[in-house]
Amino acid sequence: MSDQNLTTRTIIGMEIHVQLATRSKLFCGCAVEFGAQPNTRVCPVCLGMPGVLPVMNRQAVEFSVRTGVALNCRVSSFTKWDRKSYYYPDLPKNYQISQYDLPLCHDGYFELDGNGSPRRIGIIRAHLEEDAGKNIHDTPGCTLVDLNRTGTPLLEIVTEPDLASADEAYEFAVELQRLVTYLGVSEGSMQKGQMRFEPNVNVAITRDGVEYRTPICEIKNLNSFKAIRGAIDYESRRQIQDWMADNGYLQKQRPNENRGWNDDRGITEVQRTKEEAHDYRYFPDPDLVPVELDQAWLAEVEASLPELPRQRRARLVTDFGMSAKDAETIVGDRATADLLEAAVAAGGTPKLLAKQFVNVWSKLARQREVSIAALGVDAARMGALARLVDDGTVSATAANQIAERMLEEGDSPQALAETLGLVRVVDTDQTAQWVEEALAANEKAVKTVLTNPKKAKASEGFLRGQVMRISGGQADPKLAGEMIARRIEEIRKSSGG
């Protein structure tokens, strides 16, 4: 900002709706199914017909508790259901069954690694509720309503306003999605609406030692990480500009707002003023009994939690010698990380296997647009391929070719190496012949080694690569390197250098 006496601080809290991966809805037996024909996964209960009674889905409660424990929350031994009243076309009962003053999980925190300095983001609550339906605006002149999603179990997670930037909110969203998929409580697909993020954004502006705060704006239903970053960044700048243009743009002087993100234009747009809790006229649902959790059952749920992504990344760096970036790549998919560890257990060298996962298997997975775990190669064969490289039977280059064939054939890596003629040849006479071919075909590189000390090492590496190419990956790189160095020295002496 041009005003040198002005500083700004963005304040971000997040509301996240996580669709739980139950087979049926929260209070009825209708299937939870994405992409079904509109209004075919409904019944009198989720349509709010007179005289029907809801029955609670036990697994939804278990999934919520698993998530709450992973978020370091306190889990309530007693909670209840409340009716949240509002009138939208996609809410057939005109109320939503939710939790108000006694949430299932509360007072927790979520740790982010940040840039080397861990940050703790407070979790106010994580409560269960049912989803609404979906308004569809594809038909000109009218709005269609699909009620298949009505009654789907949602876990709403609400953070403290502890996030301080669009980038930090982006990191939080990525890590939270990874957490719920690791726990197995949600597929977490943002494209399918299974995770929806709603940042609450305002700005603290300090001028001449006096702090001012802009109204809070909630940006509704963001369904991509890119949108989260873009919407928060835009909204922060917009609020600062509006305050500078009008000093009355302040909390309590202007209403808080709900805004939508226009991805095409890269701006937020006003939808309506933001409701307060009293606008929803909460009261206990008379058709549902309170939820009382047995402490022994709660202990079982806590004990069933897997190792969480943040801890797993740290362990892979420590135990497997991986870089932080490579560990991040592997841990991004739980099944892939499980496969890596199973391959290590099958006898593969951890550091070498990690390298192959990042460089070899990930490339093949990207080509096929699947995860490494979905390639269909079992841990035992992955471990066996790593051992072949580790004990010198095949080169790293040859391992790439073998890995590709492993996707098509069920033979062992050893058998494939023999079939493809890729078993490493540790034969000085044969290697000497390959070296001579490489030197004869690359006189310029030989000259560089002899005359340019700054580029000599790179040129020797190039020549070694040429030997590997000529040999079809069969040459021993170490032996080839030694023989290249020896021949270069011979050439140097014979030329009087």
Polypeptide structure, described:
A hairpin with a 6-residue loop joins strand 6 and strand 7. The chain contains 15 helices and 17 strands. Helix 5 (309-320) packs across helix 6. The mean pLDDT is 92. By secondary structure, it is an alpha+beta fold. The protein folds into 3 domains: 6-295, no CATH class; 309-419, no CATH class; 428-494, Arc Repressor Mutant, subunit A, CATH 1.10.10.410.
The outline comes out as elongated
The mean pLDDT is 92
DSSP summary: helix tally: 15
Rg on CA atoms, Å = 30 Å
Largest sheet: 10 strands, mixed
Please tell me the total number of domains. 3
Low-confidence segments: none
How would you classify the helix and strand content by structural class?
Answer: alpha+beta
Percent helix range: 40-55%
Instruction: Compute the number of strand runs.
Output: 17
Topology:
Blueprint: E1 6-19, H1 58-70, E2 74-75, E3 78-79, E4 82-85, E5 95-98, E6 105-112, E7 119-130, E8 134-136, E9 144-146, E10 153-159, H2 166-183, E11 195-207, E12 210-213, E13 217-219, H3 225-245, E14 257-262, E15 267-273, E16 283-284, E17 291-292, H4 295-303, H5 309-320, H6 324-331, H7 334-345, H8 350-368, H9 379-390, H10 396-406, H11 413-419, H12 428-441, H13 443-451, H14 453-470, H15 477-494
Parallel strand pairs: 13-14
Antiparallel strand pairs: 1-10, 1-11, 2-6, 3-17, 4-5, 4-16, 6-7, 7-10, 8-9, 11-12, 11-13, 14-15
